[in-house]
Every structure is written in C-alpha cells, then in structure tokens.
Amino acid sequence: MFKNIDKVIEVITPLVHARGDELVDIEYVKENNQNYLRIYVDREPNGIDIDEIATLSESVSEQLDLINPDPLPDPYILELSSPGVERPIKTEADWCKAKNDYVHVGLYKKINGQKSYEGTLLDYDMDKIILEIKIKTQQKKIAIPRNMIANIRFAIKF
C-alpha cells in the first residue's frame, strides 16, 4: 500500500505547494468497511480555513482521478482537513518548529512510572529528545530515547 500512497503524494504535493500550503500527513485507512484517504494540509503562519480546504479538496480529487493506473482502485472517501493545533510531529520541519515549544509525548513503555509526558522540547537528535517538564513547582529536564516514543504532537499548555 505504501507504493500506492507514494504515487498519491507525488501527484498532490506540487498542487498543495503551488498554493503555498504544506502537506502535513496522508493516511489511507479502512474503518467500518469503508476506505478513507485522509490528507492533512496546513498554511503558515495562521493555518488554513475551511473554504481553502474545500477548494483544495476539489483540485486534489480532480488530480487523483487522472492518475493511471489508479493507485487506489477500491472505492474510498477523500477527506482533506487541517491537522489542528495539536498536530503530530512527523517531519524534520515539524521537529524544527517544535523545538522550544510545548509538546505531548506518548511512550511505548513507562519511564519513571509514566507512559506520557508534556513539556517544552528543548533539544532533539536521532537518538533522544530533551524535554523540560514541571513536577509540582520545579522544572526538570528528562532525556527520552526516540525509540521509546510512540507518538509526539504539539500540545496546548494549561
């Protein structure tokens, strides 16, 4: 299936970028016996609105219909949307934006008795991230191995 999604990405990326938008993520999933092609787009600095998404959705749909052979021959529902404020951190550009920002980290296994953390992403490399977390009234730095991270996303600090 990745090969098919790669073809979709190849076709829609220039279309998305030509509008000044960013392709954040794409997924092809089956839910309740229905296939969904979900495409998440964003625009800096203030995000993308619903009218812009609707216009882009029409253009993307037209381009997908022109691909031959069809990379997604089974019927599917196309969904375009913004990833929202708490978007996942996946690409190198996302990681750059996330540095010094507040993030939520979900782990595969507990570290110090916890399976998730929220804090400021101070630094990162291929092996680990450095997160500044608050424990009661004190700030503490914690190193989390990247291979322990199940997911990481931007978060809203309360």
UniProtKB/TrEMBL annotation:
Transmembrane segments: none annotated. It is found in: Cytoplasm. Its main location: cytoplasm. Keywords: Cytoplasm, Ribosome biogenesis. Residues 12-86 form the Ribosome maturation factor RimP N-terminal domain. Required for maturation of 30S ribosomal subunits. Belongs to the RimP family. This is Ribosome maturation factor RimP. The lineage of its organism: Bacteria, Bacillati, Bacillota, Bacilli, Lactobacillales.
